[in-house]
Amino acid sequence: MWNYIAKRFLLIIPTFIGISVITFLIIHMAPGDPSKIKEMGTFSSGEKVAREVIEETRRLYGLDMPLHRQYIRWLGRIVRLDFGESLVDHRPVIQKIKEALPITLALNFASIFLIYLISIPTGVVSAVRRGGIIDRFTMLLLLILYSLPSFWVASMLITYLAGGEHLNLFPVVGYRSLDPVPGGWWGQLLDIVWHLVLPVVCLTYGGLAFLSRFTRGVLLEVLGEEYLITARAKGIPERQVIWRHAFRNALVPMTTLLGTLLPALLGGSVIIEQIFSIPGMGRLGFQSILSRDYPTIMAIATIQALVTLFGLLLVDLAYIAVDPRIRLGGRRDV
Amino acid sequence: MSLLEVKGLKVDLPTCGNVLNGVSLTIGRGEVCGLVGESGSGKTTLALSILRLLPKGAKIKGGQILFGMGDEKNDLLSLSAAEMRKMRGRLISMVPQEPGKALNPVMKVGDQILEAILAHKKITKDVGRRAVLDLLRSVCIDEPERIYNSYPHELSGGMKQRILIAMGVSLSPRLIIADEPTSALDPTIRAGIINLLGEISSSTGTSILLITHDMEVASAIATHIAVMYKGMVLESGKKEEVLQGSLHPYTGVLIAASTKLCKPRMPEDPASPSRDGCPFYERCWLRKEVCKKMPEMKMWRGGHLVACHMVEGEDV
Amino acid sequence: MSEKRSYWRGVWLRFKKRPAAMFGLSIAILLLLAAIFAPFIAGERPIVMIWKGKIYAPIIYEPRSIKGLDYKGLMDADARLIMPPIPYLPNTYNLDEVLLPPSKRHPLGTDEQGRDVASQVIWGARTSLVVGILSVFLYTAIGLLLGAIAGYFGGVIDMVVSRLIEVMLCFPSFFLMLALLAMGSVSIDLMNIHIKLSGIHMIIFVIGITGWTGVARLVRGEVLKLKQLEYVAAAKVAGASPSRIIFRHILPHAISPVVVVATFGVASAILAESGLSFLGFGVPPYVPSWGGMLSRAQDFMDTCWWLVVVPGAAIFVTTLAYNLIGEALRDAMDPRLVV
């Protein structure tokens, strides 16, 4: 087992380097060329802006130094989480991220919690009652849900359920009301929840559809295994067969899936946050792309990649708990 | 005096169609019945039918499975799901084939045996655990504590098979169905496993239905032999009578195949299988016109039954 | 070879059995036809015209003699024309007919510049399908190549490719696509070839370059499994070169799951293109796009339901169709599944 853990930690290093190289490359593909920046500058408001931008970029990326030196500097900055100042409002980038991250995390955790809560029982029950009318109907319904474009659903929900001329059940914008809310601490919480209902719904339905179908698929595979016959032949209750034998084995591929969902967890949905004007990571990312705020863009890309990398490591470590074959020196494809 | 009586069992499977075409078999108390047949003859389907563990979509088209002594006799096919579950493991248990696939890979093997016990007996986990350790010792496993806490992938094939046998014996059932217990094992350890089963039967009086494709394996510990082909039992009786005085041509083929490497006897001219007649029609060198009709099971001599038109016997 | 043919025949037979799958397939075929024949369905040139004694098919070929004719206004006695059923181009604006609900003249209404919505939907199908299919083609090719190399050769090559896959996975793909698109255009200089990608090609490139990881992982896994089969060893003993082994022996068997993934991939790619266009980073504004239509509809959501419902429904139905096909293909190719 320790072999596995050590190997896993070591493999982080090349990936980390890869991430830093890619982000470094993107910076250099972007207008680091002063003449291009000048162009951008003159377009918006003349020489003064251009000079500021050039200087900021120069300072940030040390464009006057040889390439490999620049890269080392970049690595250093990543480690210190120093991403310079935003070109938009000159505040430290890391500050903006610190403000946006909790909101996105809250949204995503709520969403993931709901997804797992509903999907797992749905998937398991569908697999067990496979082929029945309920199963086929549910699977079709889920596929339909999965195919709905999120921005369309969001638009429709806003039009028909919020603000506007039809029902007005939910607010349209933001994650909390601008006016003071009565009820103290509890009232504030409820206000936030009320604002987040629609965005969370939009974020959740797709993942829910996907995970239910995935769970069903995985469980169906497991249900075909021989050891289930052995389990039933012992005369243990069917519920125990399903959960302790089938589901327990299904956890292995489901843990793999968790690894692939991680990037989405921290990214925040650009589209949903933009539509609902929620000031999270997704919206920050989008605004910074719109305004070509390169320091912020780089920071977001790098931080998200690094945290995802860390998350993948955690998932691989989670395998140890889930699959005893790893624990005891089995091989796993890395 | 019979413990298990299968009468005319007909079973269809979703992909294969008709798999059991009127199987009749009797096992008495304390007997070891070696059910011998090639792959595809329906042996495993018979085992699963007795335990009512057939896959979804399987249809039982007819017949009875009577189990029990005297007053306790029941038709297993008529029991409810809950009643059947109580039987499994406790009165009838199974030792499956392919020990590599038959154990839950993420659960300790000791716990898997414990699970069987706790499903039927209201005892504490500690008491149960000690019982499992005793069981492991009884199937000749040294270091039972270490093995208890192992996972299937850490154990050898022979060891896993012993675990499965321990599982099958754990509740002292009346009948153990052993489905090809040695097929997946190396020849050198087969003898040990088979003899273990034989000892269990002789020391506890448990009946065993030993399913195998190898006549030699069957004859090692069996008291009775039943020969199965394409969903029907063609001959059955006491071991000595069947082996030394085999009546059905197919039995002869099986015996010859197990003892020497010689080509099986084949009919002179090829023929297509007869749909409603004897299942052995296309491979039989004795076939005649009358064989196009299904032969009935007939009694040759005290308990020795055979289903073949070429043999004269009394109706059963 | 004949077993391959009967395998695909078996797949098709199982596929046919599912009504949902056939529904999806019909939708996909309809869309493909709409995309290919867009000028015949929604356009301002007649399909066929008899004028001054000669027959013309102006959509296919417009000789100089009739170039620039105002077809709609042609009321000559000796001119007979058959116009496409929706006689508007997607970009033809008409400020007299702004924001009209569906009517006989404009079966799906008009947008804020008087452009016919139905026409935009038909031509938008072309955009979506071109982007969807070509980008999936691109990343499937990349993924197949990298995955096969990684799986077959193992060792350092596998390490490098796996690290690359992991690096790509760590970046949130949508954000990455946006960032790349923000560059405006990409110029590639390979040896003596200069390629500049912009507009719709840029989108295809961007989706292609972020989407290959899934296919690569899948192919790598399959190749690893298949590598160990006997006929590969036999081919090696016979002296076949690695590329021959990969292409002739291994890949044909790895194709099935790749086809399934690619089908789902088309659905995702169409969603991605729509999403990007919705945010304003997709195809240029003059290219008809369902996502773009939804984006422009945002300001009129309350009053003009057709501007929101129609393009969204188009995206939804297309995505659903491909998902249905992918799902049915996956079940049809799985030998174990018997329902």
Describe this structure as you would to a colleague:
The complex is a heterotrimer of chains A (334), B (316) and C (339). Chain A contains 14 helices and no strands. Chain A is an all-alpha fold. In chain A, helix 5 packs across helix 8 and helix 8 (184-223) crosses helix 10. The longest helix of chain A has 40 residues, at 184-223. Chain B has 316 residues and is α/β, with parallel strands linked by helices. In chain B, the strands form 2 sheets. Chain B has a 9-stranded mixed beta sheet, sandwiched between helices. In chain B, strands 2-1-4-5 form a 4-stranded antiparallel beta sheet, with helices on one face. Chain B starts with a strand and ends with a strand. A 3-stranded antiparallel beta sheet of chain C has the order 2-1-3, with no helix packed on it. In chain C, strand 4 (186-190) and strand 5 form a beta hairpin. Chain C is elongated and about 80 Å long. The two termini of chain C are 28 Å apart. Classes of the chains: A mainly alpha (334), B alpha/beta (316), C mainly alpha (339).
Supply database-style keywords.
heterotrimer; B: 316 residues; alpha/beta; Rossmann fold; 2 domains; nine-stranded mixed beta sheet; four-stranded antiparallel beta sheet; 11 helices; 13 strands; 24% strand; C: 339 residues; mainly alpha; MetI-like fold; three-stranded antiparallel beta sheet; two-stranded antiparallel ribbon; 63% helix; 6% strand; elongated
For this structure, what is the CATH homologous superfamily of chain C?
Answer: MetI-like
How big a fraction of the residues of chain C is strand?
5-15%
| Largest interface, C-beta within 8 A | A-C, 53 and 49 residues
- Given the structure, what is the number of helices of chain A? 14
Shape of chain C: elongated
Residue ranges of chain C: pLDDT <50 for 5 or more in a row?
none
What integer value in Å does the Rg of chain A equal?
A: 25 Å
List the secondary-structure elements of chain C in sequence, H or E: HHHEEEHHHEEHHHHH
> How many DSSP H or I helices of chain C?
11
> What is the helix fraction of residues of chain C, given as a range?
55-70%
Q: Name the beta content range of chain A.
A: under 5%
